[in-house]
């Protein structure tokens, strides 16, 4: 008997080992967008015209700008601005974390107190708050504690301290919501698993909740720090003039040239902000290590056996532990 060609082909296909092959990639030709290049050229031309006009315009007083850009008084004021930003941010983070915990407390009194705090400091402009802090010495000169009286005049005359308190308390209201959102973003099952392992509340927060919540907390916190740096220019309402904007304003009032001194202050703000942005980038990358798909060699081999082809959207992490297990 002679077998048909269809039967022989089906038998050979069944005998051949089943292999998975990746389909060939399509050779896609990118679309051309001449309009984008024309728009980019127009933007560059307009930017060049603006820079040329600004460089040749006498109203900017570039000689005064280069004279005061590295002035000692401006540099010291920049240090005061950085110190004011850091201290106010530390106060805001600590107090904001406490307020966030109170917001999530089952006690209605604590919830009400934290909500009242957020309502006041988020509902009023920061400039109004700073003006109030500047006038606090006229309101609370002496505090009567019953058995003794506390004189607050010396404390409330320290403009730098009032600036730190004013900015820090206002920042705490926003940091409280950021911390609360980060903690609530962690699944409840993570805390339940930690409790099942015998961890205390602090161990659960330190080892389970906070490491996962930091990926959500860090980006807006970096933005708040940069925003706080620029908000320090409002402490002139207290009044405190030792920071960058206040010192440049004092110098400009003495030489009657406000424009170049404003550009000096703007340049220093840009430099400090750029440094903070770089630090924020590396800090975000540090806390986002667990979010990237990095597989060990053994995990990649198992995944390849399951799919038939190695996946393209993963990276291999070579370490001694993975080699030892394989």
Describe the structure.
The chain has 15 helices and four strands. It is mostly helical. It has two domains: 70-292, Orthogonal Bundle (MetI-like fold), CATH 1.10.3720; 293-326, no CATH class. A two-stranded antiparallel ribbon has the order 1-2. A hairpin with a 4-residue loop joins strand 1 (142-144) and strand 2. Helix 5 (108-123) packs across helix 9 and helix 9 crosses helix 11.
Labels describing this entry:
flat; single chain; 326 residues; two-stranded antiparallel sheet; 15 helices
Number of separate strands = 4
Uncertain segments? 320-326
Instruction: Provide the CATH top-level class of the largest domain.
Output: Mainly Alpha
- What's the domain count? 2
Mean pLDDT: 81
Q: What is the end-to-end distance?
A: 53 Å
Shape: flat
In short:
With 326 residues, the chain is mainly alpha-helical. Helix content is 71%, strand content 3%.
Break the fold down into its secondary structure elements and pairings.
Layout: H1 5-15, H2 34-56, H3 62-68, H4 72-103, H5 108-123, H6 126-134, H7 136-139, E1 142-144, E2 149-151, H8 153-156, H9 159-184, H10 188-196, H11 201-231, H12 244-255, H13 258-287, E3 294-295, H14 297-307, E4 315-316, H15 320-325
Parallel strand pairs: 3-4
Antiparallel strand pairs: 1-2
Helix pairs in contact: 3-13, 4-5, 4-9, 4-12, 5-9, 6-9, 9-11, 10-11, 11-13, 12-13
């Amino acid at each position: 008997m002679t077998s048909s060609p269809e039967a022989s082909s089906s038998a050979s296909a069944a005998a051949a080992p089943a292999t998975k092959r990746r389909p060939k990639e399509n050779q896609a030709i990118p679309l051309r967008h001449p309009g984008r290049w024309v728009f980019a050229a127009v933007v560059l031309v307009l930017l060049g015209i603006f820079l040329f006009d600004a460089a040749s315009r006498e109203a900017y007083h570039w000689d005064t700008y280069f004279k005061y850009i590295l002035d000692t008084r401006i540099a010291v004021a920049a240090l005061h601005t950085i110190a004011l930003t850091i201290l106010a941010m530390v106060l805001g983070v600590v107090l904001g974390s406490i307020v966030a915990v109170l917001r999530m407390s089952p006690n209605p009194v604590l919830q009400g107190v934290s909500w009242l705090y957020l309502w006041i400091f988020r509902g009023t402009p920061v400039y109004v708050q700073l003006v109030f802090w500047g006038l606090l010495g006229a309101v609370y000169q002496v505090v009567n504690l019953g058995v003794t009286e506390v004189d607050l005049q010396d404390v409330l005359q320290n403009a730098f301290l009032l600036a730190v308190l004013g900015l820090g308390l206002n920042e705490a209201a926003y940091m409280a919501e950021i911390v609360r959102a980060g903690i609530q973003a962690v699944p409840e099952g993570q805390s339940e698993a930690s409790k099942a392992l015998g961890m205390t509340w602090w161990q659960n927060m330190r080892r389970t909740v906070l490491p996962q919540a930091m990926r959500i907390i860090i980006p807006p916190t970096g933005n708040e720090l940069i925003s706080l740096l620029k908000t320090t220019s409002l402490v002139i309402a207290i009044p405190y003039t030792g920071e960058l904007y206040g010192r440049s304003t004092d110098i400009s009032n003495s030489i009657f040239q406000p424009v170049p001194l404003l550009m000096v202050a703007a340049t220093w703000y840009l430099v400090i902000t750029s440094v903070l942005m770089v630090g924020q980038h590396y800090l975000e990358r540090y806390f986002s290590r667990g979010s990237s798909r990095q597989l060990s060699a053994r995990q990649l081999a198992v995944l390849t056996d399951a799919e038939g082809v190695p996946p393209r959207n993963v990276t291999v992490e070579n370490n001694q532990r993975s080699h030892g297990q394989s």
